[in-house]
Amino acid sequence: MNRFFANAERLARRTFLGQASLGLGSIALTGMLQPKLWAGAANASLGTSNGAVEPLHFAPKAKRVIFLCMAGGPSQLELFDEKPKLADMHGQAMPESYTAGMPIAQLQNQKELRCYGPQVKFASHGQSGQRISELLPHIGGIADDICIIRSLQTEQINHDPAHTFMNTGTSISGRPSMGAWVTYGLGSESADLPGFVVLVSRAGTRSPQPISSRQWHSGFLPSRFQGVPFHSTGDPVHYIGNPPGVDRTRQEDVINTVNALNRLHDAEVHNPEITTRIAQYELAFRMQMSVPELVKIADEPQSVLDSYGVKGADGSFGYNCLIARRLAERGVRFIHLYHRDWDHHNRINKHTRELCESADKASAALIKDLKQRGMLDDTLIVWGGEFGRTPMAQGDVNSPEAGRDHHIKGFSMWLAGGGIKPGMTYGTTDELGYSAQENKVHVHDLHATMLYLLGIDHTRLTVRYQGRDFRLTDVAGHVVQDILA
Amino acid sequence: MSNSLRAEEATAPRFNRDIRPILSDRCFPCHGHDAGNRKAELRLDTLEGATEWAVVPGDAENSEVILRVSSDDPEYRMPPASSHRPPLAPQQIELLRRWIDAGAEYEPHWSYIRPEKPEPPQINDDASARNAIDRFLIEKQQQHNIQPAAEADRVTLARRLYFDLTGLPPTPAEIDEFLADKRPDAYEHLVDKLLASPAYGERMASWWFDLVRFADTVGYHGDQDHRIAPYRDYVIKSFNDNLSFDKFTIEQLAGDLLENPTMWQLVATGYNRILQTTHEGGAQDGEYRAKHLSDRVRNFSEVWLAASMGCAECHDHKFDPITQRDFYRLGAFFADVDHYGSFEKIATNSLPTERPPEILAWTLPVFEKAEKLDKKIAELESALGDHFKGDWEKKRDELISLKRERIELEREFVPTMITRATTPREIRILPRGNWMDQSGEVVQPQVPHIFEPLAGGDRRPTRLDLARWLVDGNNPLTARVVVNRLWHRYFGIGLSKGLLDLGSQGEWPQNPDLLDWLAVEFVAPASGYPGWDVKRMVRLMVTSSAYRQSSLPRPHVEAIDPDNRLVARQSRFRLEAEQIRDNALAVSGLLVRKIGGEFVQPYQPAKYYMHLNFPERDYFPSNDENQFRRALYVHWQRQYLHPWLLAFDAPTREECTAQRNTSNTPSAALVLLNDPSFVEAARALAARVLAEAQGDDQARLRWAWRVVLAREARSEEIDLLAKLLIKHRAYFSTDNSAAEALTSVGISKRPENLPAAEWAAWTSVCRALFNLNETISRN
After folding, report:
1. Position B11 pLDDT exceeds 80
2. In chain B, which residue's Cα lies nearest the Cα of A279?
3. pTM of the model
4. How far is Cα of residue B255 from the mean position of the Cα atoms in its chain?
5. Helices assigned H by DSSP within B357-436
6. What does the DSSP 8-state code read for residue B219?
7. What residues contact residue A183 under an 8 Å CB cut-off, 6+ apart?
8. Residue B96 CA, distance from chain mean position
9. Residue of A209, A211, A214, A210 lying closest to A227 (CA atoms)
10. How close B261 comes to chain A (CA, Å)?
11. Is B220 helix (H, G, I), strand (E, B) or coil?
């Protein structure tokens, strides 16, 4: 190739791949998983990344995120936000001063709004004495490792748009999810796994709220930043298995032939896309090995399996938490778990207990496991739903059938690891648990804080689309300094 | 754009071309149109605002703007560091300086000025120019001392044209036919043949579906199927019939408001209904009415005006003269579309769900039957006449039975969502987009204030008025938007790059005269033919010399024009998701060419829909010929688009898409390698090789290569494939069950008496062919 071509190709490559640069040599590198490939993670000192944000805006506290989404909207009033006054007012009319002019969901159709007292007891846990529900004994056991925020607010009151808002900072479809933003900004540290992985579980046999793949879509970012769902049954990743009758050697023969023919053609037409495609086929072939290896949990000691409550590749929340740890170990940047079925419009007492049984132990096990491996310091964990639930009952307050409706003006989450101040509670709601009162934390603030911990200024991670610079936090968002370690 | 491309512009800076892009990017966010966000009460987007104190026309040195942008003092310099916008480059400051010194003349944004038809330039050597397009392009190229590329070889040209116009590959016989056609206008004959083929309408339909976000499901929450199949067929039929674009526009936006609308015109109004809707329990009607309004305004303005108005839902547009009031006034045109917010109260969680109003309508196959019957009935009726003699009784009975058949045919009609005008709801401006705040002004339908208002006297303007305004020939945007997008399809990059934004943040067109010439030619052709003729415009583009160029880069040209904005060669790009599968099905002989009807369902990973609910659902892949239909009929599940479509960048169609990404990922590799649709196509092509190709391995490999890639293989290529063939022949002959397994993938019939090992080895060869970069590229 003459000098002109080399130059032209470099130019064209810049056009096609953004910041990616690719080698022709034996080491296959990927445009999908590592936006800037030669700045490998192994060489990355503090303050650099292999993504679009280079250098990082701040020294990062966290290298990766595990987001444990309790989908459906868990009740903060039964988990983290203790409201004795609400208990006192159980069965009484909810004062209109709280609810006038506020959006409501299914309670639109209910004649009276009555206070519904917490259905559980709270106790103090750990040195920090954080007040946590009796339904979460294991999370109580890690009270000194987590920061509980009780003053979250969001803007969307129905599940689908609320998830979209929690993930993309807007309820309008087509925008990148936070996992896509983070992977775009920081790149991936894994050479043969996707940078953004999604795992979905459900508890019990009820009919849970749906989860749309929009929640891990890359929107207008290149599709290589899309979340890749991992499954516990069938192929762990779509089409990761060879066709029937084709073993690994035969697959390799086909791929080698494809790459050889592509190389031959490239010599003729000088198309950087071909170089990239060759690399992607090599990576795909490696993924066909690395993904099945990743999900083989047989190499975990029994004690670890027990701590997560894992019985096998059952797709349970516990199993997904364990896979999350294995993904984190292998350098995956953003791991997003959805645990469905927290939508307790009725029988909240019964159903919240069931959901806590499935979520409590594994969540705590994940934190302890990461801590024991020295990974909690640079892994940011976020635990919570797309919104919370009303202090008012849905249904008859005196019936076991009673539940709580969707609620967006005040709800709780907890964060841990990666630069979060452990053992603290932040923010309050009013005495009936309706509206966030002190230290409100909007979803945009949560995003700003997460990005900050990863070393990114949320106002500077922007992508131009349709003539506008878009960002995860839209035009808002403040880093919540008070909860930083 | 490289600096050298700017060379010719070194004389007088023009506001639209040179100055506005700088101001728009660096200044307008705080000193622009959005009153709410304006700093220092300064606006630079109007002459009046700028010359209050910041700009002194004719005197750059005493203009505050120049002092600020060129200052070394970070406290004083604009834009400030806090804006995260970089300081201006020295060349940009110089441009501003010269513009102010020359009098600081403002122009309205280029795309808001009605295009005039420029005279195609006279060029020195126009031997290679076939039409006006070429003259515009060559003029620019000559300014940079670039020659256009040579014409592509005929095989490449044919394959390019087949994919671009029909989305399907040419067969070797079709290639041979073209090669053998020695007429000087053989190429034009091929263009006409392809434009007349029904596959053309299918190909164009995919493009339109991305824009209008056509999908088979509701999008939100349970993402149930909604009933809309006839609309798909309306779009295919319209492109095939070459319905003029003005009528196409009017029928979709306001077909129900036409006098005595036909069934197709009512079906067309499905356009207003294919936005995302919900059935979620607890959805608030007011909130969803607001969501629907903004969804419709966004899509309308993106499809026809390439204007991104989304941000005006909450505040005045920061860069463009679009106000929040404009946004809600546009929304008011759609206030008669439906009175539903959420559909929770009027439908059930069923598959499909109900989304009234709907009518029973024909799909294309049913329409074609109806058309035939109607013709026969009319013939018989006229034959019967008013004089009953001879075998009139036989004719009468025949007529009765035909009429009965015609009525029976209505059993095959299916429900489809349409628009039926109701009393318009009251539309208010929602302060900050908050639907619960009902304190905003009540607004009437009207076009954005930068345009002449629709004159209707006291009459409330309707969707029909709005649609006609788009296509009355005076709208400065509509035609530019369409020709720019068509250009993108045939040349790989828009004349203005941002296909969704011709506003002030969009790109000044690379060749504004060409864009305007095309736009005017589209609306009012010089030939005197009626305007808005899409096929004629497509034909004009693909019969230019520019289209017929080779796509191979030339080093000296790449150095000057790395992004190929001067179009001194063709572009080369990956095929779209639909084409990639259609191609595999076509060359393997599996493709079933049936036009229209209900959606089809290809194989898909088990339990892919497991996280959908209300209701929970299984997926049943089509187990008949529908498995092998073209991809545009595939069930478009917005929340869980088929993984093959996702891997090759097909959009979810929740919002308008004017330009798909073209990614290059391991996921795509895994689809082509392992998705049963592609494996089955490989084993079917392998069976074809064994049944149809003559001669030894080499000859058969050459045959297969040509079927897949159109061109002749080179001997090195054949050698590589032969190695694979021999290796796998040896392997599979020792493992018959593996060979049987591989050649049993899919539901298509297995030809009998094919030796499994031989067949499996050829299947490996065909898999390799399907995975080649060249196979999934258009060059």
Report:
1. no
2. B666
3. 0.91
4. 22
5. 364-384, 392-409
6. B
7. A51, A195, A196, A225, A333, A334
8. 37
9. A214
10. 33
11. coil
